[in-house]
Amino acid sequence: KSGGGGTINASINAISTAGGTFNVLKYGAKGDGIADDTNAFGGAWADACKVQGSIMLVPSGSVFLVKPISFSGPNCMSNIVFQLEGKIIAPTNSGAWGSGLLQWLEFTKLKGITIRGKGIIDGQGSIWWKLTTNSAVESESSYLPNSINTEANGGMPSTKPTALRFYGSTDVTVTGITIQNSPQTHLKFDGCTGVQVSGVSISSPGNSPNTDGIHLQNSQNVVIQATTLACGDDCISIQTGCSNIYVRNVNCGPGHGISIGGLGKDGTKACVSNVTVRDSIIQNTLNGIRIKSWQGGSGSVKGVLFVNIQVSEVENPIIIDQYYCDGHNNCPNKTSAVAISGVSYQSIKGTYTANPVHLACSDSIPCAGITLSTIALNPSTKGVKNNNNNPYCWRAFGEIQTATTPPVSCLQKGGPPNNKRPDAISGYVC
């Protein structure tokens, strides 16, 4: 179906309804892990892009060295499949990255794009990590350029790329593949609608800085399930503009847990709603299920359900932190905040190594509608880091629906005063 030399004849192009398979080897790819196969990938995509329901094939048994590339629409036909069976590796020489890029492999402005297969995307990120910070110190700029010491990192540029990014696309499916050792975030969805992620494996060392597993931003109607995430930052990071997010049957760890935020940095407005995380395992992580925001922001997080989460050796299993500061910024006290309401924790069980429950909410806009039921969190048999490891609450209002272990007596019953209710505060409405 595919033609050599990077083009396909017009007669075959006209037969678009039947689809077609475009093998990168037929476009000159060497697949030896040494030769630059970027142009071959670009040629195969250019022809696949013209054919509805086409398949761009990256075959098994080969290793393809590919420089930063964008597989772009919006003029592509719909329902293209990127069939990944081989291995794609990123370049490790600084010249391939210029002055720095935000992503390595990008799919943008497409409708009905699927990446599937048993293949591997390897960002070869260790050269970017040489100036490694302590894994317990986060940078919440994980979705922005992250500066590193270029001399300590083989002259690599100061902007570390995301391995695989989807932007401005609808009906996106990622299934079966492995993404590993990204210089920064592994898999990012920005401005996407209708996303399905399943059977994906993401991995990088626990001390690799800012290597989020899956990052969501300005995306709606997202399902993530049956996926394993082991990384150096949040397993899943849910940022502003996200709604109708459903996470199920995820195995997270090591890493920093599953997080909504950080939101509201630099006085920005953040809106997140209708998030469910359920039937998942979180182990050997800094946090479990977390909502975090900077002081000074606005907007809201509402309609969040965490249910049937098993935690093991997690420092802070349940955490809301409206005083988030990453240690790299001066964070003075501010009165405005991203309002948090309607958050339910059900059947959260397992072991902790620092604090079981930490609910630190805003003085001016307290958390409202926090409910806890069937919470059973016990100290690790290996010991805990803090002598005072009782549940902590500040300006958190809600209901204890069943007895909890340990007792969370600090949660204030009912709701905040009328003048401090989230829906009564200017800037809350999204």
What are the SSEs and their pairings?
Elements: H1 10-14, E1 21-23, E2 32-36, H2 38-48, E3 55-58, E4 63-65, E5 69-72, E6 80-84, E7 87-89, E8 103-108, E9 111-116, E10 120-122, E11 162-167, E12 170-175, E13 178-180, E14 187-190, E15 193-198, E16 201-203, E17 214-217, E18 220-230, E19 236-238, E20 242-252, E21 258-263, E22 269-283, E23 287-293, E24 298-314, E25 316-321, E26 339-352, E27 357-360, E28 367-379, E29 392-394, E30 396-400, E31 412-413
Parallel strand pairs: 1-3, 2-4, 3-6, 4-7, 5-8, 6-9, 7-10, 8-11, 9-12, 10-13, 11-14, 12-15, 13-16, 14-17, 15-18, 16-18, 17-19, 18-20, 19-21, 20-22, 21-23, 22-24, 23-25, 24-26, 25-27, 26-28, 27-29, 28-30, 30-31
Q: How would you characterize the overall build of this protein?
A:
The termini are far apart. The longest helix has 11 residues, at 38-48. With 430 residues, the chain is mainly beta. It is built from two helices and 31 strands.
Biggest β-sheet, characterized? 20 strands, parallel
Number of strands: 31
Report the average pLDDT across residues: 89
Radius of gyration: 23 Å
Distance between the termini: 49 Å
Structural class: mainly beta
Strand content range: 35-45%
